[in-house]
Design brief:
256 residues; alpha+beta; SMI1/KNR4-like; seven-stranded antiparallel sheet; six-stranded antiparallel sheet; 9 helices; 25% strand
């Protein structure tokens, strides 16, 4: 699925962890940088054209300088140290060079994106962190909000790629910036304490999944006005794989 710019902007605006500088860079600056480092991920290109630079927590995100000076500063995505490791392009690191480092795994393309890896500063070991740059922002915001990677397994899978989903049929599946507010607004903790509201259909029905027990992947559609603790009995089971279900609906919404 392609990250939704509106949801991505809402996530950035809502998260105290993410600080983007207003104003982006022209497309020709990005193209000049890509002439040096190769194609940049689509959602990172969106970030550069919208915010240019910024921070995620203590990590500084790489900038793009105007050509022909685009590789003269350590902050630039084309700086030599960011490209020093084969098949890695390090786009986020602490300003003093310590702490975790995050990079695009150029040997692990995912469509118009690259998998994101985190490198431990002490051991040098790497671990997968997200599937897209948008997912990097989403997972970072989720962890800051206390969700770890996600409150249920399928949201964790989804958030590694996108900050939620909006479909033409009115369906919305929430990112970490919406989840708490929507669950609070519908009093899910009081009315259905073993369930998490992960989205809604825009017409008064919610999509819920259990956050404890064996079955944490089945998603049920239930009337939010008559919500109770027995969602599995009163609701309609719509899928056992939220991500695959959304992918199918996305294709129907946008045949291209």
């Amino acid at each position: 699925m392609t990250p939704d710019p509106l949801l991505l902007r809402a996530l950035i605006d809502a998260s105290p962890l993410i600080d983007g500088l207003p104003g982006g860079v022209p497309g020709e600056w990005i193209a000049a940088a890509e002439a040096t480092v190769g194609p940049l991920p689509a959602s990172y290109r969106w970030w550069l054209s919208t915010y240019r630079a910024g921070r995620v927590g203590v990590g500084v995100l790489a900038d793009v300088a105007p050509p022909p000076h685009h590789d003269d500063t350590a902050e630039d995505i084309t700086a030599g140290w960011r490209r020093a490791d084969q098949d890695r392009l390090w786009f986020c690191a602490e300003s003093d060079g310590g702490g975790d480092r995050y990079g695009f795994a150029l040997d692990r393309p995912r469509g118009a994106e690259y998998q994101i890896v985190r490198r431990d500063p002490w051991t040098g070991e790497e671990e997968p962190f997200a599937n897209t740059f948008a997912g990097f922002l989403t997972v970072s915001a989720a962890r800051e909000s206390g969700f770890r990677d996600g409150p249920v397994p399928d949201l964790a899978r989804l958030w590694r790629s996108v900050p939620g989903v909006r479909l033409d049929n009115g369906t919305t599946v929430y990112g970490p910036h919406l989840l708490t507010a929507r669950n609070t607004a519908h009093r899910v903790r009081d009315r259905a304490p073993h369930w998490t509201l992960v989205g809604d259909d825009g017409a008064g029905h919610g999509y819920l999944t259990r956050h404890h027990g064996r079955d944490r992947t089945s998603v049920y559609r239930a009337d939010l006005g008559a919500l109770d603790g027995d969602v599995a009995a009163t609701g309609e089971r719509v899928t056992g794989d939220l991500v695959a279900w959304l992918s199918g609906l996305s294709e129907l919404s946008d045949p291209a």
